Amino acid sequence: MTVGTQQALRIERAGEILAGVREEVARALVGQRRMVDRLLVGLLTGGHVLLEGVPGLAKTLAVKSLADSLSLKFRRIQFTPDLLPADLTGTLIYNPRDGSFTAKKGPLFSHLVLADEINRAPAKVQSALLEAMQEKQVTLGDESHALEEPFLVLATQNPIEHEGTYPLPEAQSDRFMLKVKVGYPGRAEEKEILRRAGLQSLPELTPRASHEDVLEAREALADVYVDDKIQEYVLDIVSATRRPRDYGLQLDTLLAMGASPRATLFLVRGAQALAVLEGRPYVLPEDVKGIAPEVLRHRIHVSYEAEAEGIDGEELARRILEQVRVP
Fold it and tell me: What is the pTM assigned to this prediction?
């Protein structure tokens, strides 16, 4: 292992800071630990996160609670069919006195942006968001304005209602590092939700990490050691989505397209982020396996035959992870 004492201490401190943020979020949000951890992975890596789940599972509350636990600028945008690109990016205001234009910046000029029900907005709006997500900049008129780091888009969508929606194109969904499926709470968690229902209001959260703390935690990510065997394991997983027969998987008729090299990068960075959350200076195979479903489920495109059988990218990812040998 090639992690020095100073780097290990920096990783440990980053883990403690994020544990404090997680603890603060838990004051407002019952359960949903996996979702919160994936949001923190996005914060650490700078990778955008897409949350998918039926209404009422606290997706919006989770993002707002995370923002309240951090000293970062936060904006929520409710996506609707009549939304315009300028509603996100801002626009140029004409000054008749001197004939000049002044940039009025929109809600994208924040650190955390919640794109609520992202698939309800038309393609033009989604493409405006895409530039900000990919280039970390917004163009107003002839000028491009850089977005301040950290910049993170946390989007939500409803998987069951498709009337009046604009499904995300593959090119845009691929820009999201993680696609997190939010499930129902357990019985004990739901009982706690019921108990809290009598409260007049949610507890007021206190920021547990500053802007500098977040940037410092991000720097610690690069110090997490990734062994060559772990890298080979990641390459095996991604290769199996493209050439499943090489790994003893009979998935040719179910696969339309495998994962891109972006998946390889995100698997490693996501695994490093999980290690930081544990305060650990090295990546374990379990970290890769833990983050893989969220990285792969929207990057493995299935064939019509698979769709007819009710098999999706998540199911194929599960089969691949079961088959590929763990170091």
Answer: 0.88
CA distance 118 to 155: 6
Judge contact between 196 and 30, C-beta under 8 A.
Answer: yes
Structure confidence by residue, pLDDT tens digits, 186-238: 888 888 888 877 666 777 888 888 888 888 888 889 889 999 999 999 999 99
- The answer to whether the CB of 41 falls within 8 A of the CB of 47 is yes
Place of tokens 């009422």: 56
Q: What does the alpha-carbon distance between residue 274 and residue 279 come to, in Å, rounded to a whole number? A: 9
Whether the upstream peptide bond of residue 96 has omega within 30° of 0, thus cis, is no
Tokens for 29? 């949000």
Name the helix (H) or strand (E) containing 325. none
Query: Mutual orientation of helices 5-25 and 261-277 as an angle, nearest 10°?
Result: 80
Distances (CA, A) of 32 to 22, 59, 148, 265, 325: 11, 9, 29, 26, 30
Q: Which domains does the chain have, with CATH numbers?
A: 21-218 (3.40.50.300), 225-323 (1.10.8.80)
Upstream peptide bond of 150 is cis (omega within 30 degrees of 0): yes
Measured CA to CA, the distance from residue 73 to residue 37 in angstroms comes to 20
Amino acid identity, residue 4?
A: G
